[in-house]
Specification:
- About 30% of the residues lie in helices and about 15% in strands.
- Helix 1 packs across helix 2, helix 4 runs parallel beside helix 5 and helix 9 runs parallel beside helix 10.
- It is α/β, with parallel strands linked by helices and about 425 residues long.
- The strands form two sheets. The chain has a nine-stranded mixed beta sheet with strand order 1-2-3-4-7-8-9-10-11, with helices on one face.
- Strand 3 and strand 4 form a beta hairpin.
- The radius of gyration is 22 Å and the shape is elongated.
- The protein binds S-adenosyl-L-homocysteine.
- The site of S-adenosyl-L-homocysteine has 18 residues, from strand 8 and strand 10.
- Keywords: 4Fe-4S, Cytoplasm, Iron, Iron-sulfur, Metal-binding, Methyltransferase, rRNA processing, S-adenosyl-L-methionine, Transferase, tRNA processing.
- Its main location: cytoplasm.
Length: about 425
């Protein structure tokens, strides 16, 4: 357990405490189907089980009610219950969504007593920054948040020359138990509320607007649900947060839906439901293997919805929304990086049509305690070339922040 530092601390190489996983990489010569070995936990506790319900690690209450959890009508009611005029609701929304503040001191167009009362009742502090780590000359900032009940989540803000991207968490922990993912080893603690998700966004957007990142003040342009948790397992709160993100100010941040990516292990009924929402967010499917045998090891929910079912649903998403789907594929050395698997993936994608999908191979970001590593660069190159030979647009994901464990719940795992 690391000390919690109340002040932002830049630590590029955080001390690692072992988390209870050990990888079982498969051997096998080129062209051979390797033997897959399920990772064996070093504490002998067995693999993390797949779970759709929260852990029994203490009964956790709901986060306190926050302005952002309420619909515009409910906000008016809440303000009236506090003895204030309905138009105050709109002023509060403007402060929150347009000025990116929940600080009474900044709401100078409201009388002092009014703003103090409204903020105390409607803007509880839901997130407390416990640690901040930076990388890439300050253009990548990762924050570890403590929630009201001590649960921990992370978000990562990345500034690029032509865009800014925030990676947010949708759950504390995760129940999907993917063995290569640090968050997957934690189990699920609980779902985040709408406001807990949106507060990650407001905080990042404010930090950009204030010019905290090198390059001067900027707007938040892109958002990915690729932090901790399985967003489609917390469907309601995630969709409500998306509605707040895309609603024009003052009811929301006015972001473009197409710049919001929801990444999923492949919860098929929820993917089908998302297609029917009429909000054209980008869908990313974490495939990681084109065959059920291996995918059931890497993404245990595959035992419920198979590769073909997940791909059919992804294709349906494209048909209904017109949005090209991303396939995520973490390249794990000698595990899933074989040329024949690239061919099988290309064949399965093309069997469902052309132009509907692109593939994002991601070099594995090794988690502490696991012996799995990223693929050899030459093997990665071959994998990408094979996919492209099938006509599949393929771009290797850049691995920003991997030196601060940027990708996958590792910071929170360290503290458990
Ligand atoms: N639950 C969602 C969001 C998770 S994180 C999902 O699974 O899609 C976003 C992506 O990071 C997923 O594709 C996930 O499989 C991948 N990922 C997790 N751990 C990783 C690791 N150690 N290295 C590389 N990618 C990883």
């Amino acid at each position: 357990m690391l000390d919690l530092m109340p002040e932002p601390v830049a630590r590029l190489t955080p001390a690692r405490t072992a988390i209870p996983i050990a990888g079982g990489a498969a051997g096998g010569r080129a062209g051979e189907r390797p033997v897959q070995v399920r990772p064996v936990p070093i504490d002998g506790g067995g693999p993390v089980p797949l779970s759709f319900s929260t852990s029994t690690r203490g009964a956790r209450g709901k986060p306190p009610r926050h302005f952002v959890d309420l619909t515009p009508e409910q906000r008016v009611e809440a303000v009236a219950e506090l003895g204030e005029k309905p138009f105050r609701s709109k002023q509060l929304a403007t402060h929150y969504f347009a000025h990116l503040t929940a600080d009474a001191a900044e709401m100078t167009d409201l009388p002092q007593a009014t703003r103090d009362r409204l903020v105390a009742a409607l803007f509880p502090d839901l997130l407390t920054a416990a640690r901040t780590l930076t990388a890439d000359a300050g253009t990548t900032v990762k924050t570890l948040w403590h929630l009201f009940d001590g649960a921990k989540v992370e978000s990562v803000l990345m500034r690029y020359p032509n865009r800014t991207t925030l990676c947010v968490s949708s759950q504390a922990g995760c129940g999907m138990a993917c063995p290569f993912c640090a968050t997957g080893q934690l189990g699920l603690t609980r779902n985040l509320s709408t406001a807990e998700i949106v507060e990650q966004v407001r905080s990042a957007a404010r930090s950009l607007a204030d010019g905290d990142l090198p390059g001067g003040p900027a707007r938040l342009s892109n958002l990915v649900f690729m932090g901790m948790g399985e967003p489609l397992a917390n469907y309601r709160a995630v969709m409500e947060s998306v509605r707040r993100l895309v609603a024009p100010a003052p009811d929301g941040f006015g972001m473009s839906a197409r710049n919001i990516t929801v990444s999923t292990v492949g919860l098929v009924p929820a993917m089908d439901k998302l297609a029917r929402e009429g909000i054209p967010v980008t869908l990313a499917l974490s495939l990681h293997a084109p065959d059920d045998e291996l995918r059931s090891e890497l993404v245990p929910v595959n035992t419920r919805w198979s590769v073909d079912e997940a791909l059919d649903s992804a294709r349906n998403y494209f048909e209904v929304t017109g949005r090209r789907v991303s396939i995520e594929y973490a390249l794990i050395k000698d595990m899933n990086d074989h040329a024949w698997r690239a061919d099988l993936l290309g064949t399965k994608l093309n069997a469902r049509g052309r132009g509907w999908v692109h593939v994002n191979p991601i070099p594995l970001n090794p988690t502490p305690g696991s012996i799995w590593t990223a693929s050899d660069p030459v093997v990665e190159r071959v994998f990408v070339d094979r996919l492209r030979a099938h006509g599949i647009p393929t771009t290797v994901r850049d691995t920003r922040g991997s030196d601060i464990d940027g990708a996958c719940g590792q910071l929170a795992a360290e503290e458990e």
